[in-house]
Design a protein that fits this description.
The complex is a heterodimer of chains A (219) and B (343).
Chain A (H helix, E strand, L loop, with lengths): L1 H42 L8 H14 L4 H7 L1 H8 L5 H25 L3 H9 L4 H12 L1 H19 L10 H10 L4 H30 L2
Helix pairs in contact in A: 1-2, 1-5, 1-8, 1-9, 1-10, 2-5, 4-5, 5-8, 6-7, 8-10, 9-10
Chain B lengths: L3 E10 L9 E11 L4 E5 L6 H8 L7 E6 L2 E2 L5 H8 L2 E4 L11 H11 L4 H14 L15 H13 L5 E5 L7 H18 L2 E6 L2 H7 L2 E6 L2 E7 H6 L4 H10 L6 H10 L4 E7 L5 H10 L3 E12 L2 E11 L2 H12 L3 E4 L3
Parallel strand pairs in B: 3-8, 3-9, 6-7, 7-8
Antiparallel strand pairs in B: 1-2, 1-4, 4-5, 9-10, 11-13, 11-14, 12-13
Classes of the chains: A mainly alpha (219), B alpha/beta (343).
Chain lengths: 219, 343
């Protein structure tokens, strides 16, 4: 227990790092996933920009990258991170790779939620002469907003999970903290402290997500 | 020139499966709809009514043929120009298709925003429409807080927002109960009479045609099999398929099965008298039966009123001497159409 008290500054540092990694990954991956998901949705057969070739390419792309276990993806994508950022290790490298992985995951969630929008509603917008871009931004996304918020909440929790392996490429965060100071030092109290903080973060975000989704759905 | 003019319009869809047959939804339809008409398009589901109406505002593109709206051929125009014309064609739907993420106000404002109207214009036009459909107090509500009839009234207001000259109604009352249906029909009638908006109404409900339509076309398997005045088509359908459809919405001549059921109860001759406004009155016909000493019982049928014109079919089981029956029927045949139920 005394060790834990000594480690408190490091614990707060790790908490901050986790929030930093996950927050930025959610931002970049969220935007990337939204774009890719919209691409999948609109090019799907019978939709606004239906295009078999583009849909096929995007679909295969997502199917190839999404199932790769993150720790392997992290290793495999390291050269790419190095090429883009100039550095293949540390928090920024993990944010880069995590954003990339999240893009593929988010895209499916976005696509699935947009598909729940009733085709009749889109038809109604078309019938008053609305253009396709306007329909996507003013009808399709707002109509699916509630489920989209829940989808992003789900992704946040998944990112907290994935970010725990940051230590493997020299990143920080609660995962690294738990392994380095808890597991490797035979100090379960330290491990459990990290777990507790992760639980609190996830709970808070889940409450926030539920609240926002309820507001969007008005129920 | 007709406001809406379809010339040899066809629409086929690619086969559902590889190697399957192409699906012919609309098969060589030619149809003129004049300004101010309320034109009913009726037929069984799957007859192509919904597709036809979506060709008019180019939600679906034709495979061949021309569709002219006020003289402009929609099929020859690029999407950008078609969108501008669509602002002049309102549409309402069976499932209302309101935007659930928007308030009633914003639903109705949507077409105006698409048209690029400014804030002030939008606010005053939406208020005007809300009071026209009687929902002024619901402006800030969301669609899920409304009843079915209220939803459709919002749908109508939204369709009218950009001041269209045409309103397309796709089974607009089919999801409503009878009382709400008549409210919505009354509202549509006002849309036609007060604003002079031409309405194309797709339906399989007799009520809609009876109270609203001035002209009607019957569709079957992608073709228009019969068209004309509502009264003409309903009181005296010519084609087999329109007869079949009319008989499902108007209780008229009994079908084969129904004749069999009637036969079990009535041994004698069974005949159907068809009355039409302008023909001879019922009392003259029944007087002929009484004069020849023929007894009768009305066993099937009904009398219909289409915008003040009356027609109907009454099926009678006759009793009395065969020669008397023959004599009475000969006289009656000179007044009206008599159909003999087969044995």
């Amino acid at each position: 227990m005394n060790e834990l008290i000594d480690l408190l500054p490091k614990l707060w540092q790790a908490t901050f790092e986790t929030l930093y990694i996950v927050g930025l990954s959610l931002l970049f991956g969220g935007v990337g996933g939204l774009v890719l998901g919209l691409g999948l949705y609109v090019t799907r057969r019978g939709n606004l920009y239906q295009n078999r070739v583009v849909f096929g390419v995007l679909n295969v792309l997502v199917n190839v990258f999404r199932p790769i276990p993150f720790i392997i993806f992290l290793a495999a994508a390291q050269p790419l991170a190095r090429a883009v950022l100039g550095v293949g290790i540390g928090n920024n490298a993990i944010i880069f790779t995590l954003s990339l992985a999240a893009t593929f995951g988010v895209s499916r969630i976005v696509e699935q939620n947009l598909l729940t929008v009733q085709p009749g509603v889109i038809e109604a917008a078309r019938s008053v002469g609305a253009g396709r871009l306007r329909i996507v931004s003013t009808i399709v996304v707002p109509e699916a907003l509630g489920p989209l918020i829940l989808g992003y909440t789900f992704i946040f929790v998944a990112l907290v999970d994935m970010s725990a392996v940051a230590g493997y490429i020299g990143g920080g965060g609660l995962g690294n903290f738990a392994i380095q100071y808890g597991y490797r030092q035979f100090n379960p109290a330290v491990t459990w402290a990290a777990v507790l903080i992760i639980i609190i973060i996830v709970q808070l975000v889940q409450f926030l997500g539920n609240w926002l989704a309820r507001k969007a759905l008005r129920r | 020139m007709a406001l809406i003019s379809l010339t040899n319009v066809s629409k086929t869809y690619p086969p559902a499966e590889r190697g399957g047959e192409r699906v012919i939804a609309i098969d060589d339809v030619t149809l003129d709809i004049e300004k101010g008409d309320v034109y009913g398009i009726i037929g069984y589901s799957g007859a192509g009514k919904s597709t036809l109406v979506r060709l008019i505002n180019a939600l679906e593109r034709t495979t061949s043929g021309a569709i002219r709206i006020d003289g402009r051929d929609m099929t020859a125009l690029p999407e950008r120009d078609v969108r501008r014309i669509r602002l002049g064609i309102g549409m309402i739907f069976q499932q209302f298709n309101l935007f659930n993420s928007k308030t009633v106000f914003n639903n109705i404002a949507y077409p105006l925003r698409v048209a690029g109207a400014d804030k002030k214009t939008i606010a005053s036009r939406v208020d005007e429409l809300l009071s026209f459909v009687g929902l002024t107090d619901k402006a800030r509500n969301y669609p899920e807080q409304l009843s079915g009839g209220q939803k459709q009234r919002v749908g109508i207001a939204r369709a009218l927002a950009a001041s269209p000259s045409i309103l397309l109604a796709d089974e607009a009352t089919s999801a409503l109960d009878p009382e709400t249906t008549s409210e919505v029909l009354a509202l549509l009638k006002r849309v036609n009479t007060e604003f002079g908006i031409t309405i194309v109404v797709i339906t399989h409900e007799m009520d809609v045609i009876q109270t609203l339509a001035t002209k009607v076309a019957v569709m079957d398997a992608g073709r228009i099999v019969e068209r004309g005045d509502v009264f003409e088509v309903f009181s005296n359908p010519q084609q087999a398929s329109s007869k079949r459809f009319v008989s499902t919405v108007v209780q008229g001549v009994p079908s084969r099965d129904e004749v069999l059921t009637l036969r079990q109860r009535h041994r004698g001759r069974i005949v159907t008298f068809s009355f039409r406004d302008g023909d001879v009155s019922q009392s003259v016909v029944f007087a002929e039966l009484a004069r020849a000493n023929v007894g009768f019982e009305i066993v099937y049928g009904g009398i219909n009123d289409i915008q003040g014109q009356v027609f109907g079919h009454l099926t009678l089981a006759l009793s009395g001497a065969a020669t008397n029956q023959e004599e009475a029927l000969t006289n009656i045949r000179s007044h009206i159409t008599v159909t003999e139920a087969g044995l």
